[in-house]
Amino acid sequence: MTGHREPTVVGVPNFNAMEDAATLRAAMKGFGTDEQAIIDILTSRSNAQRQAISQAFTHEYGRDLIEDLKSELGGHFEDVIVALMLPPEEYLCKELNKCMEGLGTDESVLIEILCTRTKKEIADIVQAYERLYDRPLAEHMCSETSGDFRRLLTLIVTGARDEEAGVDAARAAESAQQLFDAGEAKWGTDEEVFNKILAHESFAQLRLIFEEYKNIAGRTIEQAIKAEVDGELKGAYSAIVECVQSAAAFFARRLRAAMQGLGTDDTTLIRVLVSRAEVDLAAIKREYERLYDKTLESEIRVGVVTVECVENAGAWFAARLRAATQGAGTDDGCLVRVICSRAEIDLAGIKKEYERLYDKTLQSDIEQGETSGDYKRALVALLGPA
């Protein structure tokens, strides 16, 4: 992984934290919430600028901006906005903690976060984790993993990777031979050798080692790992190898997997988009299109606010209203919140989008649903003429 950066979010010039704090306060004050104003500000500011806005908000209004946002928003939209508001290392700490708490551990999240970051990024995460949870990350991780997978992650978390030594061709050839001898050249695999090299060497040095490996073995290190290793250890090794060759391609594949199959893995989708927006999301988008012949934007479906609400807020709110009126029972809270909060903003546009998407009017679905009496009449009155 190189130091080359291709962010999609770089912040704004002539930044004024107090003005942004005032705009956000106005967007949440009174009857209804102006979600578009929140999106326009928080998706275009850098994380450092968002932290300054948060401080200005507290200083001027004596309120916590994140708590105010949580009280006004909901669903995955809230998840995106809160993720944007947290310092990067704190957000990743919360994701790590969440994947290890409760029954079972999501090893794929451990791999995605810990096997793809630089030594400095890992150090920031480790420091923040102990501050947030009063427990070392390594200790928590060791209680949730086992075997060579645990040993590999422990090496990474304790800062074993040497990013200062530079690139050495002779040492790369020696390491490549060690990998070959520990895997393909023997019965079974000596994972200790793989762990030592993959967790200790810099990404630049690993790139050279993998080139040397192909010269020695006649096939790629990816092919060797696929043949020699299985389970979560295979996933961790593969993530390191993929990020050495192209971190953008690795994250593009993560995004693709999150959007395929039954339903969308919104947690992964949000985590990758938010955590890479100021790093290399432009490169990830380009790799996604190269790998899958589709743009990332086109693949993110209606209901995923990260793209849809920015491009078409009416369609996003129409989808929420549709979900609230379908299935077993009616989500009255959602109906009231959306209709009341958008009545003086863009409810006419939402009604049009609802009819375009579902070939039914919003009024007819509410009238035919489980609402009744004065409650129904009040909602329909707010909707205005059909």
UniProtKB/TrEMBL annotation:
GO molecular function terms attached to this record: calcium ion binding; calcium-dependent phospholipid binding; phosphatidylserine binding
Coiled-coil ranges (or none): none
Keywords, ordered alphabetically: Annexin, Calcium, Calcium/phospholipid-binding, Repeat
Any Pfam family hit: Annexin
InterPro entries: Annexin (IPR001464), Annexin_repeat (IPR018502), Annexin_repeat_CS (IPR018252), Annexin_sf (IPR037104)
CC per GO annotation: cytoplasm; nucleus; plasma membrane; vesicle membrane
Keyword Repeat belongs to the record: yes
SMART domains assigned to the protein according to its UniProt record, in alphabetical order: ANX
PANTHER family: ANNEXIN, ANNEXIN B10
Domain comment quoted from the record: A pair of annexin repeats may form one binding site for calcium and phospholipid.
Family indicated by similarity: Belongs to the annexin family.
Name recorded for this polypeptide: Annexin
